[in-house]
Amino acid sequence: MTTRQLHLNGFLKAAGEYHAGWRVPGNPPDAGVNFPFLAEQVRRLEAATFDSVFLPDLLGVPDDPPAVTERVAWSNDTLEPTTVLAALSTITSRIGLVATASTSYNQPYTVARVFASLDHLSKGRAGWNVVTSLNDAEARNFGLSAHLGHAERYRRAEEFFDVVAGLWDSFDDGAVRADRVAGRFFDPAGLHRLDHHGEFFDVAGPLNIRRPPQGRPVIAQAGSSGPGRTLAARIADVVFTRALPLADAQAYYASVKQQASAFGRAPLVLPELATVVAPTRAEAEDRFAAVRDLLDPRVALADVQYWAGVDLTGLPLSAPLPPLAEGNRSTGAQAEIYAQAARDNLTIGDLVQIVTDGDGAIIGTPADVADHIEEYFTQDAADGFNVSFPWQPATLVDFTELVVPELRRRGLFRTEYTGATLRDHLGLPRPPSRYAPD
Amino acid sequence: MTTRQLHLNGFLKAAGEYHAGWRVPGNPPDAGVNFPFLAEQVRRLEAATFDSVFLPDLLGVPDDPPAVTERVAWSNDTLEPTTVLAALSTITSRIGLVATASTSYNQPYTVARVFASLDHLSKGRAGWNVVTSLNDAEARNFGLSAHLGHAERYRRAEEFFDVVAGLWDSFDDGAVRADRVAGRFFDPAGLHRLDHHGEFFDVAGPLNIRRPPQGRPVIAQAGSSGPGRTLAARIADVVFTRALPLADAQAYYASVKQQASAFGRAPLVLPELATVVAPTRAEAEDRFAAVRDLLDPRVALADVQYWAGVDLTGLPLSAPLPPLAEGNRSTGAQAEIYAQAARDNLTIGDLVQIVTDGDGAIIGTPADVADHIEEYFTQDAADGFNVSFPWQPATLVDFTELVVPELRRRGLFRTEYTGATLRDHLGLPRPPSRYAPD
Question: For B432, which of A123, A315, B183, B217 is 20 to 30 Å away at the CA?
Answer without folding.
Answer: B183
